[in-house]
């Protein structure tokens, strides 16, 4: 492939990836809008209905695109892998390490060494307005969206060669980008979010099955809410 063709392809992939991210943010934004009108139950119900339809369509589109990517090029052989005792044990170890990391972060915030991230404040505010729907979105839907976008589609677009260096760069880049999506300032909280992203990226790369990183993301968000 000629240099100009390569650059053109990457530019197009970047544009499409950003487009998928915008679709996700738009779907989640509709739920936030519905929460702004809790004083009007009639309007809230209609906005929630629209938000659910848009969310279902957005998730279907992104999942479809991820599947098409794997059909077109899948050198790492990502897919559905069988469940074994070894895989369960490895998953538990990764989960416990991630939990310890999350607990350290919470401790630093509780001791006022770190400030509560703006993203966390926004999530907590949304929970007060529409607790059930926001809990479902945060715990169930957001992990699926974010793993498909930040792990599946991102790695397939930009880190599609199966070698040690490329896999390591994929884990780091995906983690850092995940951190930036949750904390727009380059500070310690951004590093902490990036650390969580690297746990998720490692899980996806290690197990070669996006269901594992989705499951880990689900557990992390669930524990964060209780």
UniProtKB/TrEMBL annotation:
Against InterPro entries, the record matches this protein to: CAAX_protease (IPR052710), Rce1/LyrA-like_dom (IPR003675)
Molecular function via GO: hydrolase activity
Q: Which domain of life is it from?
A: Bacteria
Q: List keywords of the entry alphabetically.
A: Hydrolase, Membrane, Transmembrane, Transmembrane helix
Which Enzyme Commission number(s) are on file for it?
3.4.-.-
Q: The CAAX prenyl protease 2/Lysostaphin resistance protein A-like domain covers which part of the protein? A: 131-223
Pfam families per the UniProt record, alphabetical? Rce1-like
Q: List residues traversing the bilayer.
A: 17-35, 47-67, 88-110, 130-153, 165-184, 190-207
Q: Does the keyword Transmembrane helix apply?
A: yes
Q: Where is the signal peptide?
A: none
Question: So what family is this one in?
Answer: Belongs to the UPF0177 family.
Matches recorded under PANTHER family: CAAX AMINO TERMINAL PROTEASE FAMILY PROTEIN (PTHR36435:SF1), SLR1288 PROTEIN (PTHR36435)
Name of the protein in its database record: CPBP family intramembrane glutamic endopeptidase
């Amino acid at each position: 492939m000629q240099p100009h063709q390569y650059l053109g392809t990457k530019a197009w992939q970047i544009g499409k990836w950003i487009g998928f991210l915008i679709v996700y943010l738009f779907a989640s934004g509709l739920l936030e809008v519905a929460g702004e009108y809790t004083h009007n139950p009639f309007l809230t119900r209609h906005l929630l209905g629209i938000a659910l339809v848009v969310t279902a369509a957005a998730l279907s589109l992104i999942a479809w695109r991820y599947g098409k990517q794997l059909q077109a090029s899948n050198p790492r052989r990502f897919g559905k892998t069988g469940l074994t005792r070894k895989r369960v044990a490895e998953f538990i170890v990764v989960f416990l390490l991630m939990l310890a990391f999350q607990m350290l972060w919470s401790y630093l915030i509780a001791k006022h060494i770190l400030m509560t991230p703006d993203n966390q404040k926004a999530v907590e505010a949304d929970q007060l307005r529409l607790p059930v729907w926001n809990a479902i979105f945060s715990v169930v839907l957001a992990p699926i969206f974010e793993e498909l976008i930040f792990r599946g589609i991102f790695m397939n677009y930009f880190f599609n060669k199966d070698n040690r260096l490329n896999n390591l760069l994929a884990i780091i880049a995906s983690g850092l980008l995940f951190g930036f999506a949750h904390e727009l300032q380059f500070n310690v909280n951004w590093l902490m979010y990036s650390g969580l992203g690297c746990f998720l990226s490692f899980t996806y790369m290690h197990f070669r099955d996006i269901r594992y990183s989705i499951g880990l993301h689900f557990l992390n968000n669930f524990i964060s809410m209780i």
